Amino acid sequence: MNTIHIIGLGAGDLDQLPLGVYKKLKKTERLYVRTADHPVLTELAQEGLVYNSFDEIYEKHDEFAPVYQEIADTLLQLSEEGPVVYAVPGHPLVAEQTVQHLIQAEKAGKCQLLIEGGSSFLDSIFGALRIDPIDGFQLVDGTIMERDRLNMDQHILIAQIYDTFSASEAKLTLMEKYPDDYPVTIVTAAGSAQEKLQTVPLHELDHAAEIDNLTTVYVPPTADQQERLKEWQTFRSVIAKLRSPEGCPWDREQTHESLRPYLLEEAHELLQAIEEQDDDAIAEELGDVLLQIFLHAQIGQDNGYFQLEDVLESISAKMIRRHPHVFSDVEVDGSDEVVSNWQAIKAQEKPAADSLLEGQERFSSSLTTSYNYQKKAAKVGFTWSDAEGAWEKFEEELQEFRNELANGSKEDQLDELGDLLFTLVNIARFYDLSPEQAMVQANRKFRSRFGFVEKKVEEGTGNFSDYTLEQLDEFWNKAKLLARKGE
Asked: One MF term in GO for this entry (predicted)?
């Protein structure tokens, strides 16, 4: 089988290289190195060591991923002609993507690997920074670093920071969570005679004088919770604190039932912010809605029934299950087929209901419940063929309501009013209009215009009783006119 012998060159200079590794390098005939830019190779070249580097491959690609893949593929081809020795910086199994590609090839039976030598740069980094990894640390690849995977209360070491561009990319990712002036330390050639540490504000990371393939960026853990406000875990701990015995008496008293009106209120405030296209308000109101979700999750955890992880597992599994065209090999032709598949999968998940209307009630909104009922009934053909039938029914119900107002009891009047509103909801359904949203907008419009009337009264006598209905109606019409002009 094709053999590739992988040797780690360590993180320092020749003095730190194990004697056995030194001897192997000196006697090998087919030596390839990922990069010649390493102090060990510089010194060995002066002793006459001959090797081939893959530095030219870096020049062919704009990203690192294809570089590493091409190096691995080239080594596999070379191994077909005989054993190959491949030297990499540090330890072969620490932050070395080319080796990981070769390991996958070995698992597929394409080669046999021998791996040895080379201390990783981690020991030298910990020593240079005087930190204990037992406190918790993350080692991340700067070329594929993701904001959501960074834990701000741990030591973070960012490898693969080769140049100003990679430093800039890392900086931009970090600035999505950390303050612009957060101190970060640039560690160069840790453990060698050229070791250098430079601490700079985060926004200056890509302006440092020395950044090369021996550079590691260190981000210290945040000491203050106020600096971790962009982390999910921080928000969760805030809610847990509020619900704790040492927390807030009001928050401790809340239940799923007592929080219902607040969730409704926050949802409507979010809808208003969306309607007004106010991005700042949308962000704020989303936070208020999120507060309600976390409170309910914390109550579930306090009561021992469920916790936030169960909520996340449930919704994540549902999204994956109901989007087979995204997470599986199902193909769809447009959003209509997506909706159709969604409904079919949903039907399979839930046991057959006794009624088509089961589960359509919305205790918070009779309008929405009515809309849902009629939409479900319409799907099985229980509806007029067009809106004209709904309009005729509306006229019928309007006349019946008027009749009851003239002669009927309060109970009968209430019953006919319900029929009339139900028919209005049906008309809204035919025109694909949300009756709930229509009422939200109507209420908002009334409040705004009546506020203008109040302002005019306040500017006048300050007393509504001093004005006739015609005068007040004039203020109202003025408010309508101004609204149409966008003033």
From this structure: nucleoside triphosphate diphosphatase activity
